[in-house]
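Field notebook, page 375. I keep forgetting to write these up properly, so this time I am using the form the group agreed on. The chain and the ligand, S-adenosyl-L-homocysteine, are recorded exactly as supplied. Prediction of the bound pose follows.
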Amino acid sequence: MEERKKKRKRYGGGSHGNRSSLDGSDDEQMHLPNPMVGFNLPGYRRPSVMRMLPQQAIGPPFFYYENVARTPRGVWETISRFLYDIEPEFVDSMHLSAAARKRGYIHNLPIENRSPLLPLPPKTIFEAFPHYKKWWPSWDPRRQLNCLQTTVASAKTTERIQCLLARSSNPPPPSVQKYVIDECRKWNLVWVGKNKVAPLEPNEVEYLLGFPRDHTRGVGKTERYKSLGNSFHVDTVAYHLSVLRDMFPNGVSVLSLFTGIGGGEVALHRLGIHMRAVVSVEIGEANRRILRGWWDQTQTGTLIEVADVKSLTPDIIASYVGRFGGFDLVIGGSPCNNLAGSNRHHRDGLEGEQSSLFYHYFRILDVVKSAMARM
Ligand code: SAH
């Protein structure tokens, strides 16, 4: 009990901690704070959060690391231990968007004087998509969506719901209601016609995650859902990164690891922070194409694309540090496939084939730090 209390305190949980409503019954999971608003969020403030960063955590460079909040026990402790003992900031983006997204962030950015992107995004389904009101049954109580995932419901799932409702009374009996709502919650289905549910379209997911419309257009639909499901929530990340704007009026040079579709880059752009240079490391070809397409349309700085974090040797990293006069920001969220709910292939935690890529984030950051210390 004492141990649990200590840990909860350390990881930002407070007197609000209510594990049963947060963690389900899975005892291998960790305890998460409630409400999950990090050190602060627009409209929510944890009372007088002050943090003292450990000496070795202080930049340059600034760094920002992200992963899913809900991991097997011990994972965040390990990540934190490698990242200079900084306490993770756990945020559920449901406080800043119409969809939930529970993520942990470890960074050495200041936490005072943050500012959100304006306008604030809609926080309910109907604010985001008013036209769905038309067919929304009164017995579906959802006002927010669950976490946007990498896969969507099959046509079989939505057809089964439609048939079931067609055969039921109106309103349907409680057992049918429960089944339908459980499926709707699980798959984030929305009402698009009489008795008819459907998954969100990729451009709706882009919108909910803070990306420009058609950001991921040009690659297959399955690929779009997958990349979006893995991406940052732009407004949340932008809120944390907003402190960089006044610090770097001439722009930033960024080392972007596991770039995906560029949630970090889009956040910086929407904040009006110029990117002088981005070295982006992303293994997925479709993702690299998406980032390049967006970059060429919106940016004037230099973009260098590298495929694999494993290929970044100390010499190569040092040469980028020399060429760009150091990095102002090292940003990235490593794959969560061995950690997270529906993405979880095997519950092998941080040592899983994908998740262990975290160690490359640490390794590369450490090389950048040493190289910059010698500058
Ligand atoms: N934050 C990103 C998404 C991160 S998901 C965004 O906003 O979109 C993790 C990403 O790491 C995925 O896009 C995956 O393709 C990439 N990845 C996996 N293995 C990698 C490797 N060895 N080197 C570089 N990137 C890798």
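OBSERVATIONS:
- Confidence is low (pLDDT under 50) at residues 1-27.
- The first strand starts at residue 40 and ends at 41.
FOLLOW-UP: compare against the apo run.
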